[in-house]
Design a protein that fits this description.
Blueprint: H1 4-9, H2 11-20, H3 27-58, H4 64-99, E1 120-125, H5 138-144, E2 148-149, H6 150-157, E3 163-164, H7 167-185, E4 189-192, E5 196-198, H8 199-205, E6 218-219, E7 224-226, H9 230-236, E8 241-244, E9 250-259, E10 278-288, H10 293-310, E11 315-319, E12 331-339, E13 351-360, H11 364-369, E14 371-374, E15 380-382, E16 384-392, H12 393-403, E17 411-412, H13 418-421, E18 425-426
Parallel strand pairs: 4-9, 8-14
Antiparallel strand pairs: 1-11, 2-3, 5-7, 6-7, 9-10, 10-16, 11-12, 12-13, 13-16, 14-15, 17-18
Helix pairs in contact: 3-4, 7-12, 8-9
Length: about 450
């Protein structure tokens, strides 16, 4: 949430920011409601002062007629206070609703654009592999090597669910341990977070827990949701707390299951592991002083680059344009790895696909979650909050399978993962008898 005085004092800039982000929000309404709240607050304070003065007069020695006059005046003031309080409560609720629609301001260097195709490439690492054979997609590899069962995932849980099997189970755990060890080296405090969070925490982070556009699974009649990322649970960890300045920055990382409805998500590159309803992820989260956030945002990006450089995967980094930014983000970098299965007529060898992102959300989430620090001047001020994906396991596994496949259909394991996996290659299975005798029909 933006500071409301900032919105009033910088209305044109706020409106231009909404336009650049290609979002719908009414900054004029926010300012109008803000002014009404200010006026009603002043009115209420004046009425409360009159009520106190009237009560003080009642304590004096008064004749019956004068006392009755003050009693009538007190009843009148009480009614006026009640009406004013109700009006103020209504305005505050409307103001909160309208203000929560306003996106965060953008970094001055954020590229202006509406679509992800307008994101700006800022770095390229590694060279995409030229295959001497026609590479398979991770879906084909997963089926031929008996690593992923999408068909039974759909049968048991629905579309976009899946089973990992055999070596893929160890590969997933290896990716998690690999990422956690890098983060431990960088001084992060490690967590395994809850898979459920209260709706007010989701709203504070910037997720919409209700409605057709929501990407979240709500738990009916509980006021809670399944988390879409550990950003939610790590961001809520210090909600309504005042932190010691000397303790900042707090560098946290959390392993969690992630659940996403992916409402409206479709397209030829959404198949397989790229866009699913459930996956595991290691998330980085930082609480810091305002003057630290730009530098720490760069640090999170460099850690993401370290992780994928270590995996030997070609990738590039993009500065996300205004129209592709989530509402809380002041600036966001995406790391996109090379995926051969993204081949098209225009790009016959493949293309890049997002595997991680990192966002500086400044004090936008902190205002919603009421997270402050005690400054040297004795005042409590809002912290800045940042997040970044260390490893989203499904997408990392996708990129590894496709980039490390061999002509004989096997997959070589990246060297850094071998100690965690216990094997260096995934090869075809020896023929086993199919355990299914017959597919029953209802």
């Amino acid at each position: 949430m933006l500071d409301l005085k900032f919105v009033k004092d910088n209305l044109d800039a706020v409106k231009k920011n909404i336009e650049n982000r290609n979002m719908s929000a009414d900054a004029d309404l926010v300012v109008s409601l803000y002014d009404k709240r200010t006026s009603l607050t002043t009115k209420l304070q004046n009425l409360q002062q009159k009520r106190n003065e009237n009560a003080a007069n009642m304590k004096q020695k008064l004749d019956a007629e004068t006392r009755q006059k003050f009693i009538e005046e007190g009843k009148k003031i009480k009614e006026e206070v009640s009406v004013c309080e109700n009006e103020l409560s209504d305005i505050e609720e409307k103001l909160d609703t309208a203000a929560r629609q306003l996106p965060n301001m953008c970094h001055p260097e954020t590229p202006i654009g509406k679509l992800d195709t307008e994101n700006l490439e800022v770095k390229k690492v590694g060279t995409p592999r030229k295959f001497a054979f026609k590479p398979k997609s991770h879906v084909e590899l997963g089926e031929s090597l008996d690593l992923i069962d999408f068909e039974r995932g759909t049968k048991v849980s629905g579309a976009k669910f899946y089973y990992l099997k055999n070596e893929a189970v160890f590969l997933e755990q290896a990716l998690i341990m690999y990422a956690l060890n890098i983060l431990r080296k960088h001084g992060f405090t490690t967590f395994i977070t809850p898979d459920v969070a209260k709706e007010e925490v989701l709203k504070g982070i910037g997720f919409n827990p209700r409605g057709n556009e929501s990407n979240v699974y709500s738990i009916e009649e509980e006021g809670t949701c399944l988390v879409a990322t550990a950003e939610i649970t790590l961001g809520g960890y210090h909600s309504n707390e005042i932190l010691e300045k000397s303790a900042l920055p707090l560098m946290y990382c959390g392993l969690s299951h992630c659940f996403r409805r992916e409402a409206g998500a479709a397209g030829q590159f959404s198949k397989g592991l790229y866009r699913v309803h459930q996956f595991d992820k290691v998330e980085m989260f930082v609480y810091c002083l305002p003057e630290q956030s730009d530098e720490l945002h760069e640090k999170l990006r460099l850690i993401e680059e370290e992780i994928f450089t270590g995996l030997g995967l070609p990738f590039h980094v993009v500065d996300t344009c205004t129209g592709d930014l989530g509402a809380p983000a002041y600036r966001k970098w995406d790391l996109e790895a090379w995926m051969p299965s993204r081949a098209t007529e225009d790009k016959p060898d493949g293309d890049y696909g997002e595997v991680t992102s990192t966002s500086n959300c400044t004090d936008f989430q902190a205002r919603r979650l009421n997270v402050k620090y005690h400054d040297d001047d004795g005042k409590n001020k809002y912290v800045h909050m940042l997040n970044g994906t260390a490893i989203a396991v499904g997408r990392a596994m996708l990129a590894i399978m496709e980039n490390y496949q061999n002509e004989d259909g096997s997959i070589t394991i990246p060297e850094v993962l071998v100690p965690f996996c216990g094997f260096d290659t995934i090869g075809p299975k020896t023929q086993k008898k199919d355990p299914v005798y017959h597919q029953s029909k209802k």
